[in-house]
Amino acid sequence: MRDEGNKLMFHSKSLCFYKSFSIALLVIIFASCFAVNAQTQRSPSDVVRDFYKAMHERRFKDAWSMTVYKSAVENLTAEEMEDLRPIFEGQAAEVPAQIQIDTEKISGNTARVFVQIPLADATPQITSKPADLILVDGAWIIGTEAEQANVKKAGARYFLDALIDLNQSSTEDLLKRLIAVQALYAQTHNGAFGELKDLINAGLISPDTVDPKSSGYNSHIVVPPGGKTFIATAEPTRYGHTGKLSYWMDQTGAIKSADNGGKSVQPK
Fold it and tell me: Is domain 44-155 in CATH 3.10.450.50, yes or no?
């Protein structure tokens, strides 16, 4: 009986020890998991620093994946990324090789990081630029909740639609300026207007302004014999990606535009 009692007592102590050990083990495991998460989560400053680095290195998809704009780029094709390259290149050109973090302020699920950026590579002047971040699924991303809502609403079309608006606005501005440009050209060419290549050679229009890769449009100017009239046209290089509207204008300055699948506008 005494042996059975000892065995029962040993069994009870073993069971208690096993339970205590199991609980202690679970506590250690959970504590380790939390410690790993705390160590691996990047701070707001880390995210901002990595974003600027990726932009400077022209790794645009990597850069935007650290922001609220991730859903707007992650499913874009290589061709669509090339369409957007002029915009991204313009933004990347302002990013220096090295940046310095001034301060980091965290308030709940939002944060703001102040970054020192030179006004220009050639000048030592420094400006402090704020970057807003939000905490999403345990990770900091650049942007605000309002910006995130706008991106979700537009989806993958966010950057593409912005590019279309920019290209169409630039094309319209070019056509509006063309009347004054042609007038200047005509003053030194016996009253005759010039074709696109003539205006570029005369230094009146920048080649980049009408470069299909940067403007998203194929622009043309036709001057009939005598040079007293001209017709300017512009069609998107990739309809629905770089533009939707096609344009037509003559020497009177009357601009006609139409969304006709990328085909030329025919005046009535």
Answer: yes
